[in-house]
Amino acid sequence: MTELKIKELPDEKPVKMSVALPPDVHRNLLAYAALLSGNDGVMDPARLVAPMLRQFMMSDKGFARARRKEKSHLSGK
After folding, report:
1. In sequence order, which residues have a C-beta less than 8 Å from that of residue 63 and are 6 or more positions away?
2. What pLDDT, on a 0 to 100 scale, did the predictor assign at position 77?
3. Nearest of 23, 8, 13, 19 to residue 46 by alpha carbon
4. Nearest in space to 51 (alpha carbons), one of 68, 22, 29, 27
């Protein structure tokens, strides 16, 4: 099986958002969902958006630095 960064989807209470995607991103999201589903059938590609955004934000070093700086500023350090 293809090695994907997202292995499974957590079961969490979602917050509803509406997002417009460019067609190429939508096609890639459908393809990713198909790969992740394997032989289990097709999953709803919208369920991938939150884990993908989470993975992206966790891997963004500039974002992590800014968050640490903001937290230290708010705590008075």
Report:
1. 57
2. 60
3. 19
4. 29
Q: Which residue has the tokens 């230290």?
A: 72
Nearest C-alpha neighbor of 38 from the set 72, 4, 75, 73: 4
d(CA 11, CA 43): 14
Q: Summarize pLDDT for 6-65 with one digit per residue, the tens.
A: 777 777 787 888 999 999 999 999 999 999 888 777 788 998 998 899 899 999 999 888
CA separation for the pair 34, 41 (Å, rounded) = 8
Give the tokens for residue 17: 């958002």
Contacts of 15-18 with C-beta under 8 Å, sequence gap 24+, read none
Contact 33, 51 (CB under 8 A): no
pLDDT at 33: 92
